[in-house]
Amino acid sequence: MTAPLLSARRLSFGYGERDVLRDVDLDLSPGQVTILLGPNGSGKSTMIKVLSGVLSPRSGEVMLQGRPPRSFDRREMARLLSVVGQDPPVDFPMTVEAYVALGRFPHQGFFGGTSAADREEVEGALATTGLAPLRDRALSAISAGERQRATVARAIAQGALVMLLDEPTAFLDIRHRVAFYEIVTRLAGVRGVAALVASHDLSLCAEYGERIVLLSGGTVSSQGRPEEVLTPENVRAAYGVAVACDRNPATGAVRVTPLRGAPPGTSYPRS
Amino acid sequence: MTMRDDRGVDVRLPVSPRRVVSLAPSLTEVVFLLGRQDLLVGVTRYCNFPPTAASLPKIGGVSDPDVERVVSLAPDLVLCTTDGNPREKVRALEETGIPCFAVAPQDLSSVFATIERVGALLEAAERGRAEAAALRRRADRARSAGKGDGSPGPRVLFAVSTSPIIAAGSGTFMDEIVRLAGGRNMAAGYSGRYPRLSVEDLVAARPDVVFVAGMAGVERFPEEVRRWKEIPAFRDGDVHTLDGDVVTRPGPRLVAALEQVSAVLGAWRASHRESPGPGPGGSR
Amino acid sequence: MAGEPPGIARPGSRGLAVTRHTGGNGSGAAFLALSGTLLAAVALSISTGSVTIPLRKIADALLHGGDDTPARILLSLRLPRALLGVLVGGALASSGVAFQALLRNPLADPYILGVSGGAAVGALTVALFLAAGASPALPLFAFIGAALAALSVFLLARRKSGVSPERLILMGVVVGAFLNAVIMLMVTLSPPGKIPGALYWLMGDLGLGTPRRVGVLLPYVALGVAVLFLLSRGMDLLLLGDHAAFQTGLSVERVKTATYLTASLLAGSVVAVSGLIGFVGLIVPHGARALVGSGHRRLLPAAFLLGGAFLVISDTIARSASPAGELPVGAVTALAGAPFFLYLLRRNGGRS
After folding, report:
1. pLDDT tens-place string over residues C265-310
2. How many CB atoms within 10 Å of residue A170?
3. Residues of the domain holding A139
4. What whole-number distance in Å separates Cα of residue B267 and Cα of residue B261?
5. C57 min Cα distance to partner chain A (Å)
6. Residues of C in contact with B248 (CB under 8 A)
7. Could you give the CA distance from residue B124 to residue B120 in angstroms, rounded to a whole number?
8. Is this prediction's pTM over 0.95?
9. Which residues in chain C have their CB less than 8 angstroms from residue B195's CB?
10. Number of folded domains that form chain A
11. What residue of B is the nearest CA neighbor of C46?
12. Nearest to A98 among C241, C250, C295 (CB)
């Protein structure tokens, strides 16, 4: 296994008294898709913010290619690491192509022109995400799923080797979720991207993730291959839900099925 | 007694008013002219002529009279104008039982008529008629002086603001004064009472004499305007300032303004009769 | 099941291609058209006035100068006024583009964050209480007022995490409301008769165009517009949202501060010279976007040209259309601008 592009060691972060992340260790290696799982409030989004440098950890360290984030200037950092998050909508007329092309900023700066390499990258990003036929459409004239893909395309065009994706499939339908995971897998396999996807989707992530990191209450409760992490005990400890885990006979991947019955702590209305 | 005011309302009036409030500076001046200032118990904060008027109790402004304060003075008659006093405030006063008599003179002759009517209201009818007659005579004298020898009079600009240039057009007292004094108001052709003009408009119209209704101290035109020698008034220095209060109040002092304007225009006529071409420059 | 390739474009996708391809040639023609329009607007403006000047004389005076009356009218009155219109219109449009990017809001204009209120208070202080008439202090006080107001909005909106558009708008509203109250107070307490002149200034007046004033304003506008142009890519990225811009390599707080200060000073300096002319900074950016797209490298120059043309034409109409003398140019821009804005909104259909 090649050296990790991003490593986090004993990462802790909190707001005031409250600890949101405690003692998190994580490695992201090239060509690997890591899925960050955990219930609401477990610290997934915070983790991505700390890893990407938006927030500074209280203790512990993050290393990118062996260097701390502080040693990079903004653009250098952006050439190495890109983030796909929940962006506010763009209220102005902008074509999909122009939007994706914005991802080239770390390579162009304020004054650089658009080079052949820039154009190539944008083309490639559009092709990978299947958005080439929509390139001239306005962002507001495409569907939410297509907009999400455009955000991924922009991150692809950025050409970074580390991609952090924060719950990008939250409101999408199954078709778009599948498309998304296919793209991420392709990026990891073909380009050697180290991808971290924060997700809720227990079934799909078992299908696509090579490594799963299960966050619960701000700490890593387990990490490893899907079959190691996705056990009924781990899932119940993290999510408070009883599940059955087996192998999907069609695909061979771990399959997580919720068992009927109210989760502990909830109650029925009195009839 | 009952008299119809300028609103067309028949106002029931006390025969012998003892306590009178004026809601406009022009009306205050009229009351003083009639010698009945002893009746005044309240005036606006803008009533500054004659100077003793300023020491009378104040009841607010023209567009914002303080109804409560007026009522607290217990007047038996309020003199007001439809040209500035808000209708609702006057109505509020009337609802408390105070008779309000409204006037709105639009030209000189109605100013004179107002003096007579207010005189009748304040038991000074005789005095009212006399004063009005005196003013009429003065106005007539000024008007005949203005006729001159029948030649067209000077082109006049009467400005109420110098930057931007805003002129008094048709329907204003200033326009009437200029006409009576024998001048030609260059702003009379515009629709609207106070048209805004550009420097180029002045160059095109070439006023011979310019009057400025100064509001507080001297109003000077900006340098960019004054240096246009094509405008005879600036070339010859024929720019005169008049007290803004005087020319905008429909009161007795309008006649004094008329006389002043007439004198200036008469002087212009005289100097231009001697030298038919444009006169040499000279500041006044 | 794994293995499904991402879909091709769905048949029947909604919407037409409502914006231009960002390729080069389309906008080249647009810029040519805009420059031509601007020149035509200036030509129209200098040919219009109460003194009739034949075209031949106009050309002659422009080429050879001259000391006679028509030449002086052209060179000292009409031409500076037209040039002032270009500078003011272009500056307002550029400032509007910058604020719309900074606040990520298509309804932002240069006055939204305190500039107009501050300039008005500064100008009214001079007009009502200090000077008896036109005073060279008025533009200076207007500028200071605008700058102070914009600065207070910025400082009030600033927090450790930086300056967010939402907080800027909020503080802008608060400061604006406060300044409006101050203005009302000033108008109420002012000596009678001084208000009309001040009100006309507030409604916008290009009649103060002299060669000297144009010369004084030019470096400020040139500098401000140049700085904004340098920041264009930054403004593109700001549209994505602060986090996304940060992740794409932008020093977000620095770019926001620079954009805010430059756009405010640009607006403040033209307000100081020509009063509050509205609508230019609001709708010209949208018109320019319809022509050259949202990329700020093209948008800023296009907005400058379009804003200059729009204001010069509005001013020409304002001084020649009415038998009641000059109209305030701000009234004309609003009367022309509102329907045009509606048209743009309808044309761009289901956009927010």
Report:
1. 899 888 888 888 988 999 999 999 989 988 999 999 999 999 999 9
2. 13
3. 90-157
4. 10
5. 45
6. 193
7. 6
8. no
9. 324-326
10. 1
11. B200
12. C295
